[in-house]
Design brief:
The chain is of the alpha/beta class. It has four domains: 196 residues, DhaL domain (Serine Threonine Protein Phosphatase 5, Tetratricopeptide repeat, Alpha Horseshoe), CATH 1.25.40.340; 74 residues, Alpha-Beta Plaits; 117 residues, Phosphotransferase system, mannose-type IIA component (Rossmann fold); 104 residues, 2-Layer Sandwich (Hypothetical Protein Tm841, Chain: A,domain 3), CATH 3.30.1180. The chain contains 22 helices and 16 strands. The strands form four sheets. A six-stranded mixed beta sheet has the order 13-12-9-16-14-15. Strand 2 and strand 3 form a beta hairpin. Helix 4 packs antiparallel against helix 5, helix 5 packs parallel to helix 18 and helix 19 packs across helix 20. About 7% of the residues have low confidence.
């Protein structure tokens, strides 16, 4: 018979079971995402977040107390948080832990206060809370817990709270029209319920495997190339990542994937098991490897190193001066390990794509965090970037609405530098914001100006659909081309150029614009991009149309109008 209190050992097991249950259901949760795009997903983001905490809890062992477990849960999830759903989950755990850490054993009264504090903490973290989301489900759970505050039977309490959480989750489509249109419940809310249901299983006595496995980095043979000239490095980027499979990765798929990697590079290592595939390849175009890998599942532990640069640094390490070090860091900002020269103001931007990275570096960005649409960086990734930029004030440009919360969470953890998060939601917004920085203006004035100017930028992104759906009044079939604007899906078709033209017309409408900028991706040829530029120049003869190589995976084009 289950106890009416939860001791430290049970608390740890319940949390680990919740994490494991979320991990087991992550692909189901990913499928609940409203937009059918091949991006980072809610289930993946929440799983990476909670697994960061689970590893810390698991490392404590059995002889520990609730306070230590709470600290591990809070700090682990805080630093590992990815995406909006992951950040909100980390804040829910943080709030809950503020209460339970004071208890020797957890009873119903403790949980009532803990759920309430969890909701309060999470709502404070979101600038504009939206109902019909994970926040609504959490709030419903906390309200039900208050109603049951007199209940002494812990099992009855947990059962009723979870039953009501499911009820609230089922009503989320009535709160958010976009959910009803897509025919799904809120994915973040579903993720939260999976955590609670995993904990419930352990409390009721189910025997579960609670082993938390850390994803080990790919091991490759280290070859001493100190005497080789960099010109002999045929493929310049060492690219590593882990694929979290969303489908069976059979022997034919593995063979085909290896063959594709061999067509774009060498030094290939592909190690697969039932849930993940560890990948290592040397290539001149990491975006192509990433693009193909995303057809098998979401990506984690991404790492891209410029081997030519690393080799040069090794040859000339004795003669490097501050200027040479600065140039080296600009060549591979994602792999910086040296302390930069001190400056008053620094810039950090999230981006993926060689062309976009080069544009941002030319604009003065000190550190580029690899990520964005295809992989949301964690709070810890952003903290590491902040640590590398030796500046008194640092402006951060997330360039994705799903990274803004993680950036703000990192900001809250920094005490020795002034951090300013400019809430850019797209790459073009980030570029415009940076261009409008004025060195002679104050930090506050620059923040206000950059935030205002980014609002004058309209962005459209062209990609493909990964499943059939009905959304924004449009019928979408798997593999259709979609043009997605700031307000939703603007165009759907089978031809990339025609769909892009329709998207831009919808973006601009009857308004006047002065400049259209095209950033073409890794899967778009220069000839196709130039043909699109010509078509847009003809269609919008009163404005300039600029073309630049972006190199971004997944998105054929990113287009801005201002």
């Amino acid at each position: 018979m289950a106890s009416n209190t939860i001791n430290a050992q049970m608390f740890a097991k319940m949390f680990l079971a919740g994490a494991k249950n979320l991990e087991a259901q992550k692909e189901y949760i990913n499928e609940l995402n409203v937009f059918p795009v091949p991006d980072g997903d809610t289930g993946t983001n929440m799983t990476l977040t909670i697994m960061s905490a689970a590893k810390e809890v698991s490392a404590l062992g059995e002889n520990t107390d609730i306070a230590s477990i709470a600290k591990a849960m809070s700090s682990g999830s805080l630093r590992g948080a990815r995406g909006n759903s992951g950040v909100i989950l980390s804040q829910l755990l943080r709030g809950l832990c503020k209460v339970v850490k004071e208890a020797d054993e957890i009873d119903v009264t403790t949980l009532v206060f803990a759920f309430d504090k969890a909701v309060e903490t999470a709502y404070k973290a979101v600038m504009k809370p939206k109902e019909g989301t994970i926040l609504t489900v959490a709030k419903g759970i906390a309200e039900k817990a208050k109603e049951l505050c007199e209940e002494e039977n812990m099992e009855v309490f947990i059962d009723e709270v979870i039953r009501y959480g499911d009820e609230v989750l089922s009503k989320t489509p009535d709160m958010l029209p976009v959910l009803k249109q897509a025919g799904v419940v809120d994915s973040g809310g579903q993720g939260l319920m999976e955590v609670l249901k995993g904990a419930q299983k352990i409390f009721k006595g189910e025997e579960l495997d609670l082993t938390i496995v850390s994803a080990a980095p790919v091991k490759v043979n280290k070859v001493d190339s100190s005497q080789a000239d960099t010109a002999n490095i045929k493929f310049g980027y060492c690219t590593e990542f882990i694929i979290m499979l969303d489908k069976t990765f059979n022997s034919k798929m593995e063979k085909d994937f290896k063959a594709f990697l061999e067509s774009i590079g060498d030094s290939i290592v592909v190690v697969a098991d039932d849930e993940i595939v560890k990948v290592h390849v040397h290539t001149n175009d990491p975006g192509l490897a990433i693009q193909r890998a995303l057809t098998y599942g979401a990506l984690s532990n991404m790492k891209i190193d410029n081997m030519r640069l690393e080799h040069q640094e090794k040859l000339f390490k004795e003669a490097q001066n501050a200027t040479a070090a600065s140039e080296a860091e600009a060549e591979a900002p994602q792999a910086q390990t040296k302390q930069m020269p001190h400056k008053e103001v620094g810039f950090i931007s999230v981006a993926i794509g060689d062309g976009i990275a080069e544009i941002l570096k030319d604009l003065g960005v000190d550190y580029i965090i690899q990520g964005g649409q295809t992989m949301n960086p964690s709070t810890d990734d952003i903290l590491q970037a902040i640590d590398q930029v030796n500046a008194d004030t640092i402006f951060i440009f997330p360039n994705n609405k799903n990274i803004i919360l993680a950036a703000n969470q990192a900001k809250s953890l920094v005490e020795d530098k002034e951090i300013v998060v400019i809430p850019t939601k797209t790459i073009p917004q980030g570029i415009t914001a940076i261009i409008n920085y004025m060195p002679d203006a104050s930090v506050a004035d620059n923040e206000a100006t950059m935030t205002e100017e980014m609002g004058n930028v309209r962005t459209g992104e062209v990609t493909y659909a990964v499943r059939d759906t009905e959304l924004d009044g449009k019928t979408i079939k798997e593999n259709d081309i979609m043009g997605i604007g700031d307000s939703g899906i603007l165009a759907v078709g089978q031809d990339i150029q025609a769909t892009t033209l329709e998207m831009v017309r919808e973006m601009i409408g009857e308004d006047e614009v002065e400049l259209i900028s095209i950033y073409y991706g890794s899967d778009t040829s220069e000839a196709d991009a130039e043909a699109l530029q010509a078509a847009l120049t003809e269609a919008f003869s009163d404005c300039d149309v600029e073309l630049q190589f972006g190199g971004q995976p997944i998105y054929y084009y990113i287009i801005s109008a201002e």
